[in-house]
């Protein structure tokens, strides 16, 4: 996270090459990493869990609370109800 001056004030360092992010209405952060892994972070950037094989492009539908993950290596979309 950065402040209004662009200074890093909070970070999470266990990501190799983040490719996409999505944020739910409670400010939980879903991060797709290049190694086909998705990381779920709390609003304070604490690790909640890793989900292997569930990353690609991300879209979080606030109304239905569904996370859509598209895959580059295997064509298709997974839907995760949160």
Please characterize this protein's 3D structure:
This protein has 82 residues and is an all-beta fold. The chain has one domain: Thrombin, subunit H. The chain has no helices and 7 strands. The strands form 2 sheets. It has a 4-stranded antiparallel beta sheet with strand order 1-2-3-4, with no helix packed on it. Strand 3 and strand 4 form a beta hairpin. It is globular. The two termini are 24 Å apart. The model has no long low-confidence stretch (mean pLDDT 83).
Give the helix/strand layout.
Elements: E1 18-23, E2 29-33, E3 37-41, E4 47-52, E5 57-61, E6 66-70, E7 77-81
Antiparallel strand pairs: 1-2, 2-3, 3-4, 5-6, 6-7
Question: TL;DR of this structure?
Answer:
The chain is an all-beta fold and 82 residues long. It has strands at 18-23, 29-33, 37-41, 47-52, 57-61, 66-70, 77-81.
